[in-house]
Amino acid sequence: MGEADQIRIEALVEDARVHRDVYASEAVFKLEMERIWGRAWLYVGHVSQVPAPGDFITTTLGLTPVVMVRHTDGDTVHVLQNRCGHRGAIVCYQRSGHAKSGLFRCPYHGWIFRSDGSLRTTPSPRGYEDVGFDRDDPAFGMPRLPRVGIYRGFVFASLSETGPDLETFLGETRATIDNMVDRAPDGEVEVTGRVGHRFRHRNNWKFFIENLHDAMHPMVAHAATGDAVRQYVEAHPDTDDGRPEAEVIAPFGGSYDFFDEMGFVGLPLGHGYMGGSKSIFSHYEMYPDYLASMHAVYGEERTREILSYNKHNTLVYPSCTVRDGIQSIRVVKPVSVNETVIESWTFRLKGAPQDMLDRTLRYSRLINSPASCVGPDDLSCYDRIQEAAETRAIQWIDLHRHLGRDEQHGDTLTAIGTSDLALRNQYRAWLDYMVVD
Length: 437
Prior knowledge:
- This protein has helices at about 5-10, 20-25, 25-35, 165-170, 175-180, 205-210, 220, 225-235, 245-250, 255-260, 290-300, 300-305, 355-370, 375-390, 420-435; strands spanning about 15, 15-20, 40-45, 55-60, 65-70, 75-80, 95-100, 105, 110-115, 120, 145-150, 155-160, 190, 195-200, 265, 270-275, 310-315, 320-325, 330-335, 340-350, 395-400, 405-410, 410-415.
- By secondary structure, it is α+β, with helices and mostly antiparallel strands.
- The longest helix has 16 residues, at about 375-390.
- The mean pLDDT is about 90.
């Protein structure tokens, strides 16, 4: 990127506003894939999705197709580029599956690769004799990503050879992952189902992660949904029908004071979270059999400590958001400047009663799925902003709310929940990634 382009990128983000080009420019999107998605640690999946040697899933990191596979040694999890080292064809089209004997076969010319990405065989090998072809050259395999890290079963990878290690990158967001896993009486979580919810958004990837901590919209965008739930409960005071659904949906119609009290914490590298001691999950019913199982493992004091830790959303910038209280992860999959896929994955707390998983699945169905009661409200708003950005109906997106009222604690910033600090924190990280060579 030349000096003129660097200056132009820096001009897109100011202290209290961002330019429409961050959502609508093809050139900016292309640079984001290189500078942000090509450098950060990105969420790939969970080890429970590949339990046996040869088990694999396919996904994308930015625009790069990859395969996460359990190696034939039974212990190692590799993340490979999902490309044949011969002509570059995608090798695996299945979302998940099992590679017999840990081998992948390219569907074009039949090159066969091991589960560590190395080339095993080529058809009619005499064609490569005495021609300078080196089958041991990694360039002819399915290249392993430069860096892969696993934190408590959650697999991340980076397309860059340089940068902070995984635990340094995650920083304080590790506490959310820790809490999700600690909520399992057996000390482990596992992904439920082979395929998560896929929600296609016809807009830029940043709208979703901006909305995670936008506490000004629920009382407006979700007003009709919240009102319908309250009206139903009031009309049926003597029945439990619909109560589990109401438990999940009702908080999305909360008050400004409620979200202000949750607060926001802005972390380095664009990460952040709302809540802590209070969140939309704080009021959830605590099932007696679950409490009993936790007490048996942790004792009452430690159980109380674990279950009183309530985050609303924890953003691991730029690729995923973790909800420990409801055991779910949503993953951001950029497709183009104005198209994004959001995947939602739910987790089972091992050793917990079925009621806990039922609520997690209920939450995913009612909030995160394409047919949910809440998600489409958000998507409608994203679409309106994308249209305005693309048609130049607006030039700048405003971020003034509670500007200058943040509190600094070392490398952490805090503010009340309805502050625009969350967006300002993300765009500080955005600039750091985008303008550094």
